[in-house]
């Protein structure tokens, strides 16, 4: 394990004493156990996932949504596993298990956080298929997990949601959200999110993308040579965050205006194409929500 990862984990352990940390869900533990079997059985995997009606329904809905861009409709979990593969379906289950693992109810703030996270995940999956060579499920999982540290900080600090929302209004002062969090709480949701992802045994590059997602400016401006997984994950994540916040008429993080040109250059997207991408994602989000009505 990286030394900086261990330091993050120890810091979070000490600061969050008294706050219940969500354990890795049983369904995820079962899947990871089955994954170790050299003769992994997809039908057995489908049986495990299908026991959770909410998660299995969400998987099928997500894959069949216009964001996933598949040629055939998926009608069963078994079909979804054959399409995505074992690791990819496990990543999706991890992300979809997240919300129900936190015991926070009747919170408008957390409803806002989960809504943005879902939209970022969906947009990220679509952009991954169009502009990267990496599996879209990794971007989807990152989108869902990016702000997973927020609910723990909400439980730990009574004024956390107020400070978080105020941070959006400071974007003109060019103060990163993680710095504002550290000033008030001596910790950021990035560190807490990384902590949860490590405990849930997500892939290392996803864990580190969560840790760095508000500390990634130099990754794009200093990029030379071959793209790497973490930087690509973060580039797509930043675009998806921007589109989701605009869709909801919410002020963007200051960092978008600070280095969006570097992000677009990294992904080989010009400004006009990006504007088309944003409008298309707005339409897809409207269709996604209309399907629930």
Describe this structure in words.
- This protein has 293 residues and is mainly alpha-helical.
- The chain contains 17 helices and no strands.
- The protein is globular.
What is the strand and helix layout of this fold?
Blueprint: H1 3-15, H2 26-35, H3 42-50, H4 53-64, H5 77-84, H6 86-97, H7 108-131, H8 136-145, H9 150-156, H10 160-168, H11 177-185, H12 189-199, H13 204-212, H14 217-221, H15 229-247, H16 254-266, H17 271-290
Helix pairs in contact: 1-12, 2-3, 2-6, 3-5, 4-6, 5-6, 6-8, 7-8, 7-15, 8-13, 8-15, 10-11, 12-13, 13-15, 15-16
How many separate domains make up the residues?
A: 2
- What kind of oligomer do you see? single chain
**SS field, number of helical segments:** 17
Q: How large a portion of the residues is in β-strands, by DSSP E?
A: under 5%
The gross shape turns out to be: globular
The CATH superfamily name of the largest domain is Hypothetical protein af1432
What is the CATH top level name of the largest domain? Answer: Mainly Alpha
CATH fold annotation of the largest domain: Hypothetical protein af1432
Summed over residues and divided by their number, the pLDDT gives a mean of: 87
CATH architecture of the largest domain: Orthogonal Bundle
- Determine Rg (CA atoms, Å): 19 Å
The end-to-end span amounts to 46 Å
How would you summarize what this structure contains?
The protein is an all-alpha fold and 293 residues long. The protein is built from 17 helices and no strands.
């Amino acid at each position: 394990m990286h030394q900086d990862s261990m330091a993050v984990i120890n810091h979070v352990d000490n600061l969050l004493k008294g706050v219940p940390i969500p354990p890795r869900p049983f369904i995820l533990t079962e899947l990871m156990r089955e994954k170790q079997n050299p003769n992994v059985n997809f039908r057995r995997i489908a049986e495990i996932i299908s026991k959770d009606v909410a998660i299995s329904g969400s998987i099928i809905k997500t894959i069949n949504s216009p964001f996933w861009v598949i040629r055939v409709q998926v009608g069963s979990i078994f079909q979804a596993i054959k399409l995505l593969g074992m690791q990819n379906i496990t990543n999706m289950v991890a992300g979809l298990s997240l919300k129900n693992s936190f015991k926070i109810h009747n919170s408008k703030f957390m409803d806002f956080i989960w809504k943005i996270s879902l939209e970022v995940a969906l947009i990220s999956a679509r952009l991954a298929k169009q502009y990267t060579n990496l599996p879209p499920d990794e971007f989807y999982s990152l989108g869902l997990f990016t702000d997973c540290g927020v609910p723990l900080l909400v439980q730990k600090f009574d004024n956390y949601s107020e400070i978080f929302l105020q941070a959006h209004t400071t974007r003109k002062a060019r103060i990163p959200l993680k710095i504002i969090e550290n000033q008030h709480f001596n910790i950021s949701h990035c560190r807490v999110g990384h902590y949860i992802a490590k405990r849930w045994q997500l892939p290392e590059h996803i864990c580190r993308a969560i840790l760095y997602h508000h500390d990634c400016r130099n990754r794009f401006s200093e990029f030379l040579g071959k793209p790497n997984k973490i930087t690509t994950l973060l580039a797509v994540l930043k675009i998806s965050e921007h589109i989701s916040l605009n869709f909801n008429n919410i002020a963007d993080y200051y960092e978008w205006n600070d280095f969006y040109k570097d992000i677009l250059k990294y992904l080989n997207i010009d400004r006009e194409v990006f504007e088309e991408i944003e409008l298309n994602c707005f339409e897809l989000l409207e269709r996604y929500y209309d399907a629930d009505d």
